[in-house]
Specification:
The complex is a heterodimer of chains A (about 475) and B (about 1000).
Chain A lengths: L1 H25 L1 H4 L8 E3 H4 L3 H17 L10 H8 L3 E3 L7 H5 L8 H26 L5 H26 L10 H5 L6 H18 L14 H14 L3 H12 L22 E5 L9 H6 L9 E3 L1 H4 L7 H6 E5 L4 E5 L15 E5 H15 L2 H14 L10 H15 L6 H9 L2 H8 L14 H6 L11
Antiparallel strand pairs in A: 2-4, 3-7, 5-6
Helix pairs in contact in A: 4-7, 4-8, 7-8, 8-10, 10-11, 11-12, 11-16, 12-16, 16-17, 16-18, 17-18
Chain B lengths: L1 H7 L1 H17 L3 H8 L6 E8 L9 E4 L2 E7 L5 E6 L4 E5 L6 E4 L8 E2 L11 E3 L4 E3 L7 E5 H4 L18 E5 L8 E5 L13 E4 L2 E3 L28 E7 L2 H4 L10 E6 L5 E16 L8 H14 L24 H6 L3 E13 L3 E13 L7 E14 L5 E17 L4 H6 L31 E20 L2 E20 L16 E24 L2 E24 L15 E25 L3 E12 L8 E11 L13 E15 L10 E9 L2 E6 L10 E14 L4 E13 L1 E6 L8 E6 L2 E17 L3 E18 L20 E4 L2 E4 L6 E3 L16 E4 L4 E11 L2 E11 L1 E3 L38 H10 L6 E3 L2 E12 L8 E15 L17 E11 L1
The chains are: A mainly alpha (about 475), B mainly beta (about 1000).
Chain lengths: ~475, ~1000
């Protein structure tokens, strides 16, 4: 019995063995092929469809809102450049990333400096990827393509503009090709400006004057013009700056100065050119979260004495846009442009990146430089009037220019580093900050290039001087 | 597909099973029938007792030579009974003892005393994965530890059990927090990718993915994210084999480059059903604190810093010296935060037994461990292991099944307090106010204990099952298949409740948040194999061929919830005002291979071993999926040669060598795809899409060529046993996430790099049996490794992103440093060599001094002593290495410093070790300090000798043979000798809790 059953088994077993062998050999190639994972879309298919292409673009805005230079968090430039210049006094504990900004002791390996760089170029990559994807797409309409490409160009120019103002000579990245970008060469600040202007002009040609929807959370043609006005101003191209600002200021059907300073930063402000939609409904701005405090001493930063004492008496901005906390002996002030610290039923305030007041001040300065003193004063007085102040008493061109710069300090404080950039371009930075900041060095006008970048890309060497 | 075909032929198995069932019943009557059928051969009953000289041995197999079916096993009192004829010879065998042959010669009572098989370790069968081989006949390099060593150690991680015990295996504990990880390198770093150097882990034939299951937002307590390896329960392990050279690893092909760790779990033994219960309790503390400044020294430093900076007034925020904080307070923050005692308890129970055909083992364990941090934190681990082995009456069919299920539950603070304990000013305020609430001292400090409610919690459920079925279809032809299934479910959270903020900020639970990580991983594997073995006149041949089909799915879901109505609801995601999915993905990894081995053994003298594998992996793009690997190994047992037989002192001698290739596919899944992925962020009513990666479809396998030559010598009946091995591994076509400039938009991209990395080394092991008498036994083993890692070639290094990271001819684990030259006696600032003579210390030109962080040599020295009922086992681990001293920022700011920094430069002409203090306004000093920490000045000797493990046990004399009671005392890291000043010398990332010093006491009952 044993032998008989054994034979049956061996036949079965041999069959099994054969079956396994056949399966093994036949499935050889297909077994290790895997399908696309459920969470990923091929790049080609993303740009075959407007809604996914739009999602690729709008993701850049949420990134800009949450991280990097333009974010309203403590790591954004509103806080860091406020501390770096003379707007804010820092009270943070040792180890806090704001502290080296405040003491002007940034080192090449500083993680915020590195993050600004990496996050910015990641945003630029995403913008370039949208442009390239849109270019290749056969499915998107010309109008859709224009809008997507226009916004991507706007993002690319905006981020490069900030980078060059912080780091000086930088590479201008226009493709997603890592082989080129990995060894990208620095170009001079002037050349960066030229490229920013070219990009912005293309963006203006592509973007529609109207907003995509009721909330001004996507840049339109006028936002691009507003940035262009700022670029020309920094570049000291006065007529062009005045023209670009005028184009924005003339769009009276869209924009107007809000008479009441306390509603300038709310979601529906008529003064807003471009604002960030918060990450969740009911959430308000990150700026409110980092600047407002309820007890003393301040947890992170407070407005510097220097700034708070500079306000003219009765300036509504001091009463509306700052608030104070006192422990009986000392009083601390915090920025109060954004007032909603907590969640609200629906969001009340959005972070405003571009607003009309800046355009008036740009045109005032540009007009003064061109000798149009009356026009300059008119523009300046629009801003002073809203602040509850009398018309300017400045007479000469230089007096008006100085008055505009002072006004910019009061109007635009703790907004995206305006004060630092204004000090730089006016040439006053060393004389002003070496007095008010114990750690200030003349080489601090530029950030160090990130150590890691220098080590990877020799074309970025040498390091900025002083580091 | 192949599973299906297996089931299709399942009838055969049922048939087989049924038949064996019949046979196994018949065996109940076998004694009768056999004795009847061969009664003419004068059968009679032989009986006796088997002992080890003093104690009876249960479970010993007694068989009759050349009579396959007549065997028995000794009972619990060592007694046996067996039918035999006068001419028969008994074969008495038991694991761990020498097998002996005894002629019956008409005796009816034969008492047998077995000798411990300590000298013939070379006869032990070593697991080589797809096959096992006698130690003396192996051609490859395999290191091994067994349960005996593992059980001596009060540790919970499988890698901890191997520390210091194996040549060529360097293991570093990365944190002393329970549930944390270990870093392992087998024969050095092969891959430039820092996360591409993990060995392949195999538990009972089933690959166990060691890829991390943590998430950096949740595993914040540890220096690296959670590893699944903690799930493996060391108590269930019978042996761990590490395969190192090409001969041993090539059969694992693409996954063998970094070595293979084979874990074999315990199996039941036949004989009396044995119950063993063990209870242990103990305590752990930090091995060594860093010597920091006290309040006096610290305040003197701070004041001097302001004097140095020319400042006469303290800033309002210099609370430590401006009078806000008590100037006379002094707290040892290390003692406060890390000075606690970790309580350890461990319970284990094992039940095993069976017959000589079927054996089982069931074990359970439960372990708890608290931490040294202040607060109630607990790590709990429990598990069950079941194994069942069966072989048919005719020994043709064999089945082994084992299943292990382990649960871990970890509750830890979200942040390690080690770095806080080192930088806090010694006069910083009290942690609690008089009413017992957290003290914020009017907002002048960030109380480190604010994070006590911010918790890291994890739960891991892990199942590993395996089955091996084999059937000998024809004589010497065995058909076999491994089946495995693993299922790991891991859940991890980190909370950030509003209580971490000063209550004065008035942040409510609307500001509380929770990060969640759910990672589930399932895999199955089927490995059909056929092996054939034949002893012929011209030698012994072993042939093995097989295939592997493996599929692994990893599902990851990372979420963030914020805005709670109450902090008590923080673990309830449904109560969060906002929930964001940060990452959601199912990754499928498929792997397929064919492998084979041919082993030829001529006269037990000349052995040649050929192995090969063809691998396919879904991790590569079309066209790059398949690759071939293979190796040849050979051994010559020269002591078997006639001309050496005369030398009596030389008991064993073997020369072996191997050469072959292996590969590495540890790069993550889908890296070759050009895709977009959801970012999880909302904008303008869209969930954003972001580019997944910089894509490169063309990367392929990394290959690793290994050569080894070794000599094994046994002297004086193997009382001294030496192994000396030399190896050289070269990995090329390096598959790396090449670091890219930020201007590319990303930090890295997957690609092959035409660089060659070489690891060479000498490994020595010596085992001596110093004493081996009835009462006193003493063996010593030493392992010593000299390893050298070297970047051999790297075309275009100077133009590559690695140009300031690597140097040709130097190891990978180097750092380029500024060369520290001393302190400028005039300015008191650190000086560095200005190599390019440009008058400034510039990067990268002046940062060129190479410092190697690899150990020059490392090893372990183990002694095992036993005297009557006492056993003592201790292991010293040592390493010769350098590391960086701890960095607390520049001296003079509000951050404590090592006590040695008190010796600072103050005035012109001073000769001090510490540069001028600054409160932060002396930019030259701040910069010099920053450079100092990247200079040779901060490199220090971090060598150590440490009493890694000590275990003492005593068998209570109970007077009964059936019950044993053992008292056990164990210690881990009890003594450390080191010159390293900044705490424990064992770390990879600084600022994390060092390994703990543990002492435990336990009792084990076996009956």
């Amino acid at each position: 019995m044993k032998t008989i059953s054994f034979k049956i088994i061996s036949i079965h077993q041999l069959l099994l063995f054969q079956a396994i062998t056949i399966v093994c050999l036949s499935s050889c190639d297909s077994f290790v092929e895997v399908d696309l994972p459920k969470s990923q879309l091929t790049t080609v298919s993303v740009f075959d469809n407007y809604s996914t292409a739009n999602a690729a673009l709008s993701d850049i805005y949420s990134k800009m809102r949450d991280q990097g230079l333009l974010s309203g968090t403590a790591s954004g430039v509103s806080n860091q450049l406020g501390s770096y210049a003379d707007e804010l006094t820092c009270f943070a504990s040792p180890g806090d990333p704001t502290l080296p900004f405040y003491t002007n002791t940034l080192l090449p390996a500083n993680s915020t400096i590195t993050d600004y760089w990496n996050i910015s170029y990641n945003q630029i990559y995403a913008a370039n990827a949208v442009m390239e994807g849109v270019e290749r797409s056969n499915e998107l309409t010309a109008i859709e393509k224009g809008q997507l490409k226009g916004e991507a160009l706007f993002i690319r120019s905006l981020v490069h503009f900030y980078l060059t103002n912080l780091y000086g000579d930088i590479p201008y990245i226009t493709s997603t090709n890592h082989k080129i970008n990995n060894a990208a060469e620095k170009i001079k600040v002037k050349e960066v400006y030229a490229k920013v202007i070219v990009d912005l002009e293309s963006a203006i040609a592509l973007l529609a004057p109207d907003y995509k929807n009721a909330e001004r959370i996507r840049p339109n043609q006028f936002t691009a013009k507003a940035l262009l006005a700022r670029v020309y101003l920094y570049n000291e191209s006065w007529p062009e700056a005045a023209n670009a600002a005028s184009a924005v200021l003339n769009a009276v059907n869209l924009y107007a100065i809000e008479d009441n300073p306390s509603i300038v930063f709310i979601k529906g402000s008529k003064e807003t050119l471009w604002q960030f939609q918060p990450s969740a409904s009911g959430k308000n701005t990150d700026e409110a979260g980092i600047f407002i405090f309820f007890s003393s001493p301040p947890p992170l930063v407070a407005i510097s004495n220097n700034l708070i004492t500079s306000f003219e008496t009765d300036d509504l901005r001091k009463t509306n846009w700052t608030a104070s906390i006192s422990d009986g002996t000392t009083t601390w002030y915090h920025p109060y442009k954004y007032k909603e610290f907590d969640y609200t039923a629906s969001s009340v305030e959005y972070s405003v990146i571009f607003r009309l007041a800046e355009q008036y001040l740009i045109r005032a300065e540009a007009r003064a430089h061109q000798g149009d003193l009356i026009g300059a004063k008119e523009d300046l007085n629009v801003i002073r009037k809203r602040a509850g102040l009398a018309d300017t008493e400045a007479v000469s061109g230089q007096e008006i220019i100085n008055a505009v710069l002072r006004e910019r300090r009061w109007e635009l404080f703790t907004e995206y580093g305006h004060r630092f950039f204004d000090l730089k371009r006016s040439g006053e930075i060393n004389s002003v900050l070496s007095v008010s900041k114990a750690g200030w060095n003349s080489t601090d006008v530029l950030f160090p290039l990130p150590q890691n970048e220098l080590s990877i890309n020799p074309n970025l060497r040498p390091q900025n001087s002083g580091y | 597909m192949n599973i299906f075909s297996f089931y299709k032929d399942g009838k055969a198995l049922y048939c087989l099973f049924f038949i064996w069932l019949c046979f196994s019943f018949s065996s109940l009557y076998a004694t009768n029938s056999i004795s009847r059928s061969i009664s003419f051969a004068q059968q009679f009953q032989v009986q006796g007792t088997i002992s080890d000289g003093s104690n009876p041995l249960p479970g010993v197999t007694i068989a009759i030579k050349s009579k396959g079916n007549s065997a028995t096993i000794s009972d619990y009192s060592g007694q046996y009974t067996l039918s035999a004829s006068p001419s028969d010879t008994l074969i008495v065998s038991f694991i761990g003892f020498k097998t002996i042959l005894v002629s019956v010669q008409n005796r009816k009572t034969i008492d047998i005393s077995l000798e411990y098989d300590t000298t013939t370790l070379k006869e032990v069968k070593v697991n080589a994965g797809y096959y096992s081989i006698k130690e003396s006949e192996r051609t490859g390099s395999i290191a091994r530890i067994t349960a005996k060593d593992i059980e001596n150690q009060p540790v919970t991680n499988v890698l901890a059990t191997m520390q210091g015990r194996m040549a060529g295996v360097s293991i570093t504990q990365t944190t002393g927090v329970p549930g944390g990880g270990f870093d392992i390198k087998i024969r050095g770093q092969n891959s430039i990718r820092s996360d591409g150097n993990n060995p392949l882990y195999i538990i009972d034939g089933v690959p166990y993915a060691s890829d991390p299951i943590g998430y950096n937002q949740t595993s914040s307590t540890f220096p690296s994210v959670t590893s699944p390896l903690n799930s493996i329960n060391p108590d269930t392990i019978e042996s761990i084999e590490i395969l190192k050279d090409a001969d041993a690893t090539s059969i694992y092909g693409s996954r063998g480059a970094n070595g293979v760790v084979l874990i074999t779990t315990k199996k039941g033994k036949g004989g009396k059903t044995v119950v063993s219960v063990k209870a242990t309790t103990g305590a752990g503390t930090v091995t060594k604190f860093m010597k920091l400044m006290g309040t006096q020294q610290y305040l003197a430093m701070r004041k001097q810093a302001f004097v140095n900076d020319g400042l006469t007034q303290y800033n309002p925020w210099d609370y430590d010296i401006n009078g806000t904080w008590d100037q006379n307070r002094e707290t040892d923050w290390q003692k406060e935060f890390l000075g606690g005692t970790s309580q350890i308890t461990d319970l284990q129970a094992t039940l095993s037994g069976g017959s000589d055909k079927t054996q089982f083992l069931l074990s359970s364990s439960y372990h708890t461990e608290s931490t040294v941090f202040p607060g109630q934190y607990m790590y709990k681990k429990g598990g069950t292991q079941l194994s069942m082995s069966h072989r048919s009456e005719d020994n043709r069919f064999k089945l082994t099944f084992s299943a292990g299920y382990n649960i871990q539950d970890n509750d830890q603070p979200a942040y390690d307090l080690t770095s806080s304990s080192r930088y806090l000013a010694p006069n910083a305020p009290a942690l609690y106010d008089t009413s017992g609430n957290l003290n914020w001292e009017n907002g002048t400090w960030q109380n480190p204990l604010r994070f006590r409610e911010a918790k890291f919690r994890s739960k891991t459920n892990d199942l590993v099952t395996s089955a091996v079925l084999s059937y000998e279809i024809l004589d010497n032809l065995v058909l076999k298949s491994n089946f495995g299934f693993t299922d790991l479910r891991h859940e991890e959270t980190r909370t950030s409740p509003s209580t971490i903020y000063n209550p004065a900020y008035q942040l409510t639970s609307a500001y509380s948040g929770i990060y969640l990580n759910n990672t589930d991983r399932q895999s199955w594997i089927v490995e059909p194999q056929v092996s054939w073995e034949k002893e012929m006149t011209f030698g012994k041949v072993n042939i093995l061929a097989g295939g592997t089909f493996q599929s692994q799915t990893t599902a990851r879901l990372y979420q963030f919830g914020s805005g709670f109505t109450s902090n008590d609801l923080i673990y309830d995601l449904a109560s969060a005002a906002t929930v964001r999915v940060l990452y959601s993905d199912d990754a499928l990894y498929k792997y397929q291979a064919f492998f084979g081995r041919i082993n030829y053994n001529l006269q037990d003298r000349y052995i040649i071993n050929l192995t090969g594998r063809r691998d396919g992996s879904s991790r590569f793009g079309p066209g790059n999926q398949f690759a071939n690997f293979g190796a040849v190994g050979a051994a010559w047992i020269f002591t078997k040669e006639r001309f050496l037989k005369e030398i009596s002192w030389l008991s064993f001698g073997k020369l072996r060598g191997s050469y072959g290739t292996t590969g590495n596919d540890q790069i993550g899944d889908y890296q070759f795809l050009d895709t977009y992925i959801s970012s999880g962020f909302n904008y303008d009513s869209n969930v954003g899409l972001q580019p997944s990666r910089l894509y490169n479809p063309d990367f392929g396998w990394e290959t690793n060529k290994k050569i080894e030559a070794a000599l094994e010598v046994g002297i004086l009946q193997d009382k001294i046993f030496l192994t000396a091995a030399w190896y050289q591994n070269r990995s090329s076509n390096q598959l790396v996430g090449i670091p890219l400039a930020g201007t590319t938009g990303f930090q890295s991209m997957q690609a092959n790099l035409d660089a060659v990395v070489q690891n060479t080394g000498f490994e020595f092991t010596v085992r001596t049996q110093n004493f081996n008498t009835q009462n006193f036994k003493w063996t010593t083993s030493l392992n010593l490794t000299f390893a050298r890692n070297k970047l051999i070639s790297f075309p275009g290094l100077s133009a590559s992103p690695y140009n300031e990271k690597y140097r040709i001819g130097e190891p990978l684990n180097i750092e380029l440093n500024y060369k520290y030259t001393g302190i400028d006696s005039q300015t008191g600032i650190y000086l560095f060599e200005d190599i390019n003579k440009d008058g400034a210390i510039s990067f990268p030109e002046d940062k060129q001094s190479v410092v190697d962080f690899n150990p020059q040599y490392f090893g372990g020295l183990q002694n095992q002593l036993s005297y009557k009922r006492w056993k003592l086992d201790f292991l010293f681990q040592f390493a010769k290495q350098e590391n960086r001293s701890y960095y607390n920022g520049f001296a003079g700011q509000m951050s404590n410093q090592p006590a040695r920094a008190a010796d600072s430069w103050i005035k012109s002409g001073d000769n001090a070790a510490q540069q001028i203090y600054t409160s932060g306004y002396n930019e030259d000093a701040v910069t010099a300090d920053y450079l100092y920490n990247q200079s040779t000045g901060s490199i220090t000797d971090a060598s150590f000798i440490r009493l890694k493990n000590i275990a003492l046990s005593y068998d209570l004399p109970l007077g009964t043979k059936s019950t044993q009671c053992q008292l056990i005392l164990q210690g881990q890291n009890l003594l450390t000798f080191t010159k390293y000043k900044d705490g424990d010398p064992e770390f990879i990332a600084s600022g994390y809790l060092p390994p703990l010093k543990i002492i435990t006491a336990g009792i084990q009952l076996t009956f």
